[in-house]
């Protein structure tokens, strides 16, 4: 497939086309089909009534930063000082952008295990740096092999990206590998950029480990998270970065330069999400677990192979046997079945024989979409 | 040196990025350091926003903003005299600071000219990826507006991007219509582009001489706050109105840095758009009356300015402002100057 377009441009082009079909079923975008839980919206309503004049410092309100620090301690296993080691951002995307700008300068490089979320490359390019890609392989369950990381290192690499569970490959980095990767970071004085956004969406017996929770990990790790995926809050744009105070001072200054404080009202909604009832969030996660089985069953029927997702909200499907590029196949499925799956080639040139399929539709719609996709695949196979 | 020490060193040396941060919202009613008036959100705005959220508007929306709001922004700008744009040329941003960042970082090539007295957020936005920055000399007698001579000078040096504020964020001064026209012609004749912050335009006391938006859409990108003064300040929004050529790049960068803008803010603004013009008219009258009273109270310290919402004064006014917070002109590049938000709290206390 052509790589002249940015990966994100390819994906947005497909979304636009899908919107043109009344019966389109989107199995590509990482936007949960659930709406934000009612108690979170109620908190926003109360804040609009009572707090419309309340100023927020650029790093976010202290109450929210304290709640984030509590969450990080309870779920991620490391402690941060809300006063100096937390910055609230406009979603995980801004968190990502700020972390990259804080760690990478002109001419420097970020080591990125591939496949990965396109925005890392886009952000590094903005910073006038470059990405050094390191392949991971489906037959190794997309493991980020520390030995391979070591072999990939070059003098211009100043930071290492660790996304676990990975998007789009849905693989989880084991604690043992995280420890080995941290040792490499220490030995080569690298900053770790950790993306923990799917840390609560973990399957089977896999365990999420935050690099910052490991001995000496926090002092060189910037960690992002957001409420978008776990609380169905993509439209609110609420995320955060945590890290050591010295690096976070830079993140905070960058935040003031890029956009200033996040919406006070959205921050109150975020506070309600983190400190209020968690039952709906757990129900959503349980639902993703059920849907994963539905998707994998259909993929088995279609004869696809895939790495069983260890976490996240998607499966990365091997389409090599079709002989088609990922964009060609995604386009054909969209045109013929009105079902949108994301082409792997948009995430990495080396992943052009994969599709990313998300679990983010109600079960009946998910079944309908996959059934239509199966019909389309039968026709494609017959034509071949 | 360790990696972290190198980062800290480069951070400390970046004087643009380290420019002061100025808050958008006051801490209390004696804090007059902000540049937009604030009021409570109307109950119908709250109800409409919650209705949108409860009906499922809690998901990603289009990167440049929801189309009805972009259309409402076109109407808002038209009423301010900013014409020539359609909704496809509007980008909704998470704040006016995001609008500064997106335009400056997308539109400049290798160099940019900014006034030597300017909102510090401009310097911060440039500090993220530092270009060659040229300073435009300003004239104290016009309320810190950049001089035509300094503009001509930088354009002749080959600078292709010029950033201006009209009204000036520190003083509220606006260009005379004839000067604005001359600026447009100068910029166009040098093949340059102009970014103009119009965030204080809703409060201009228009008198036919001073104009805040005479620059043509073909060469000018306008940025500013959306519907200021009616309670959106805690859920701020900015806008960019620009040529279609730039919309693509600005949208691309907006996607990279934040995907889209909070839906709660966008739906609140959409409801506000229905009544904003009438409310703005009432607010200007109130602010003007307060400003007149303050002018009398503060006497000869006032610098030239043409907005109802703020007053800039010489530093010798500090004595009459004990107990109040105000913006320090030094943060904008003008030492011995201060800026006050026009507020009844100050009038009644003296």
Structure commentary:
The complex is a heterodimer of chains A (384) and B (350). By secondary structure, chain A is an alpha/beta fold. Chain A is built from 12 helices and 13 strands. In chain A, the strands form 3 sheets. In chain A, strands 2-8-7-6-5-3-4 form a 7-stranded mixed sheet, with helices on both faces. A 4-stranded antiparallel sheet of chain A has the order 9-10-13-12, covered by helices on one side. In chain A, helix 2 (38-50) packs across helix 9 (264-275) and helix 11 packs across helix 12. Chain A is globular and about 60 Å long. The model of chain A has no long low-confidence stretch (mean pLDDT 94). In chain B, the strands form 4 sheets. A 5-stranded mixed sheet of chain B has the order 2-10-9-8-7, with helices on both faces. In chain B, strands 1-12-13-11 form a 4-stranded mixed sheet, with no helix packed on it. A two-stranded parallel sheet of chain B has the order 3-4. Chain B has 11 helices and 13 strands. Chain B is globular. Chain B has 350 residues and is an alpha/beta fold. In chain B, strand 7 (161-165), helix 7 and strand 8 (193-197) form a beta-alpha-beta unit. In chain B, helix 4 crosses helix 5 and helix 6 (148-156) packs parallel to helix 7 (177-189). The termini of chain B are far apart. The interface between A and B is large, with 68 and 63 residues.
What is the average of the pLDDT values of chain B? 92
Number of strands of chain B: 13
Distinct helical segment count of chain A: 12
Measured between the Cα atoms of the first and last residue of chain B, the distance is 56 Å
Determine the structural class of chain B based on helices, strands and strand pairing: alpha/beta
Strand order of the largest sheet of chain A: 2-8-7-6-5-3-4
**What is the strand content of chain A?**
5-15%
Please mark out the parts of chain B with pLDDT under 50 across 5 or more consecutive residues, or reply none.
none
- The total beta strand count of chain A reads 13
